[in-house]
């Protein structure tokens, strides 16, 4: 007999929760069970507009969702400053946690969340959706091929979008009391994650923020860049911003090959995604063209990447609930390493662009 679907409760009605609600509906092993907001009216409106079944529970507080004994897991899309309170509370109620990124304002807060999860035996995973797209697995196969890619030498990652006036004045991501990490925590999280992914989760030795950080009047980062250095000589750079045209580029360079993609966070198309590889590149005799030329590889998927994230998370929760499995440590470990690097970049900026050593 197949295990019952994982029952999700959602804390809050943020815009991103609309996308994740759809993902929970599309996932074959999860169901929308409850939503809580600071008012019943807002929660009812959210449930009505986002495909919740008529049987779904609607609550006028976050606490009520956590107190519901039938809720297996919660998705938390609240402002980062609220993560430690509600993530710890959820874990203490033995609710598995799908937590929006960034996970916390700093690694110290994240460690408190992780400690609560470990004490209660619940799974925690961040909402980095592109990690679950089948394209990501295909690209990893290329990076691990010593003949085609070789040894990793460098990574360049960029995620920017041009925010409008309303966003720059009113969005939670520019408010110091809500999401104090600004662009570093939002777009920078993705850049750092792509670098760690390419480096096979190997933490760099040091981080150096690059001069030119842009702050708003409240001191929140709107754009910044940084370089990362490993003991074995590989390097990485990233740029993140709310002030430049939409760009989601990653370039991974090895001794034999190069991987490139231009939509690494949200694919240009929902059901297919491409990447480019170049292997032992050179020039024609008169140096007028590349030989061999880079090749394009397209990967299709029946479910969008956010539904695949929910499916994997629900599979892990189901294994714990129905099979007595232990929580998977891969995902919180990756989240923590991402948070560590964000902390180091922020510290480098605050110290006047000094090199900051990574201490795990």
Question: Could you characterize the architecture of this molecule?
Answer:
The protein is α/β, with parallel strands linked by helices and 360 residues long. The chain folds into two domains: 6-129, NAD(P)-binding Rossmann-like Domain (Rossmann fold, 3-Layer(aba) Sandwich); 132-305 and 339-357, Dihydrodipicolinate Reductase, domain 2, CATH 3.30.360.10. It is 35% helix and 27% strand. It has a nine-stranded mixed beta sheet with strand order 14-13-12-11-7-10-9-8-15, covered by helices on one side. Strands 3-2-1-4-5-6 form a six-stranded parallel beta sheet, sandwiched between helices. The chain is globular, with a radius of gyration of 21 Å. The chain starts with 5 loop residues before the first strand and ends with a strand. 46% of the residues are buried. The model has no long low-confidence stretch (mean pLDDT 97). It comes from Handroanthus impetiginosus.
The average pLDDT value, as a whole number, equals: 97
CATH class of the largest domain: Alpha Beta
- The structural domain count equals 2
Strand content: 25-35%
* Structural class estimated from helices and strands: alpha/beta
**What is the count of DSSP helices, taking H or I runs of 4+ residues?**
10
How many E strands?
Answer: 15
Q: In sequence order, what are the helices and strands, one letter per element?
A: EHEHEHEHEHEHEHHEEEEEEEHHE
The CATH topology of the largest domain comes to Dihydrodipicolinate Reductase, domain 2
The poorly predicted ranges are none
Annotated CATH homologous superfamily of the largest domain: Dihydrodipicolinate Reductase, domain 2
Could you describe the largest sheet, including whether it forms a barrel? 9 strands, mixed
List the strand order in the largest sheet: 14-13-12-11-7-10-9-8-15
């Amino acid at each position: 007999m197949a295990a019952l679907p994982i029952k999700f409760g959602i804390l809050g009605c943020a815009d991103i929760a609309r996308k994740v609600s759809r993902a929970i509906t599309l996932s074959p092993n999860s169901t929308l069970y409850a939503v809580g907001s600071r008012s019943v009216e807002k929660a009812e409106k959210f449930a009505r507009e986002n495909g919740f079944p008529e049987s779904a529970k609607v609550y006028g507080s976050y606490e009520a969702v956590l107190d519901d004994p039938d809720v297996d897991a919660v998705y938390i899309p609240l402002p980062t400053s609220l993560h430690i309170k509600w993530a710890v509370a959820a874990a203490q109620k033995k609710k598995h946690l799908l937590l929006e990124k960034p996970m916390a304002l700093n690694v110290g807060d994240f460690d408190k969340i992780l400690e609560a999860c470990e004490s209660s035996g619940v799974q925690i995973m961040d909402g980095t959706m592109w990690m679950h797209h089948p394209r990501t697995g295909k690209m990893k196969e290329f990076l691990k091929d010593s003949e085609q890619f070789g040894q990793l030498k460098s990574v360049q990652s960029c995620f920017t979008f041009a925010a409008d006036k309303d966003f720059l004045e009113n969005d939670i991501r520019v408010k110091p009391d809500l999401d104090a990490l600004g662009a570093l925590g939002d777009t920078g999280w993705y850049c750092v994650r792509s670098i760690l992914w390419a480096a096979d989760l190997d933490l760099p030795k040091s981080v150096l923020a690059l001069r030119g950080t842009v702050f708003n009047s409240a001191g929140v980062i709107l754009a910044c860049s940084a370089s990362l250095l490993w003991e074995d000589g590989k390097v990485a750079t990233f740029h993140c911003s709310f002030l430049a045209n939409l760009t989601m580029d990653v370039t991974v360079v090895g001794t034999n090959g190069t991987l490139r993609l231009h939509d690494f966070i949200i694919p240009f198309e929902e059901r297919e995604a491409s990447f480019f590889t170049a292997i032992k590149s050179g020039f024609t005799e008169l140096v007028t063209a590349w030989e061999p030329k880079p090749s394009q590889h397209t990967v299709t998927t029946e479910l969008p990447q956010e539904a695949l994230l929910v499916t994997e998370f629900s599979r892990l929760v189901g294994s714990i609930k129905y099979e007595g499995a232990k929580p998977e440590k891969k995902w919180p470990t990756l989240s923590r390493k991402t948070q560590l690097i964000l902390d180091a970049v922020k510290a480098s900026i605050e110290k006047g662009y000094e090199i900051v050593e990574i201490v795990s």
